Amino acid sequence: MTNTENPSALPTDKTVASAPNPLAGVVIGLDIGGTKTHGIRFEDGVPVADESAGSSNVQNVSREEAARNIADLFGRIGGGTVSRVYAGSGGIDTEEDAAALASLIQPHVPDALVTVVHDSRLLLAAGHASTGVAVIAGTGSAAWGRNADGGEARAGGWGYLLGDEGSGYWLGREAVRHSLRRMNQGLPADELTTALLQSCGVDHPNRLIALFHSPDTGRRFWAQQAGHVVAAAAAGHPGSQAMLDQAGRDLADLALQVLRQIGLDGPVILGGGLGMNVEPLQDSFRRHLSSAGATDVRVLDQEPVFGVLQLLAEPV
To answer: Which element (helix H / strand E) includes 28?
Structure first.
């Protein structure tokens, strides 16, 4: 006899044990950065497809380009019967931001529940933490944190015109400024300026001014120039080393702002393309946090999109 037929019947042990598995079925996780959209298809919690497409962050590309890149990704990762899509993206500051991105995703998975959060939340979860502060150092920069009471706080994430200190864009812009200062001082092009000029296809620092303001370049283009700063620093260029140290200091300041707001002393998890791969920046980040009393500092050891699994497993 079932419980439906006899409401007073006690549930069996099997019924008690059969709590819903939040990872059951097909779940697609998306990490939408300023340069690319990274997607993983999970089936019962196991990754079965891993694909990337161009950015679908509408702060960096047009809505039309974002829609094309999402379509490209779903064309390769597969849609079909999907129960959940969990997307993390920069620039998700309001419910309207989240709804706008969800509206680009939903047509590819019409029966799925689509959840959109700020990408720093993915990063914290990917760092195996439910509380603490996540700091993104990629094309842009931002910090987000949460404490055990559910209190949340943000710092940075204002975009390249207002902030993004310590980001790839910031380093690319600082390389341009460094080159222009040397030009104004009558100094010859050094190794950083030479590499930057070659990369940009111009023959004199003065030409960088028009190129920087040109509609033919943008946030992603200049963020890509950060690699020249990293390479020059590794070769012993003092100016580039100072830029990476300042980037680490600025990112640490973002983390400290959030830690103070939510009343925690850690952990702090650093991610993003720069954060995960540039050791001098990591060293500066750790050093400046440690001097302020924050010693539980971790560098993300997996792609942020894997944080989707922890977010789904957390109790609502």
So the answer is: strand 26-32
Task: Give phi and psi for 39, each to the nearest 5.
Answer: -125, 140
Would you mind telling me the total number of residues written for the chain in this entry? 316
Sign of the CA dihedral running 238, 240, 244, 250:
positive
Helix (H) or strand (E) holding 98: helix 95-105
Contact 153, 123 (CB under 8 A): no
- pLDDT (tens digit per residue) in 109-139: 998 999 998 887 888 889 988 899 999 999 8
- CB 24, CB 44: distance < 8 Å: yes
Radius of gyration of the chain (CA): 22
Give pLDDT tens digits for 207-257. Answer: 999 999 999 998 889 999 999 999 999 999 999 999 999 999 999 999 999
Burial class (CB in 10 A: 0-12, 13-18, 19+), 236: exposed
Q: Where are the alpha helices (DSSP H) in 114-265?
A: 119-126, 168-184, 191-200, 207-213, 219-224, 226-234, 238-262
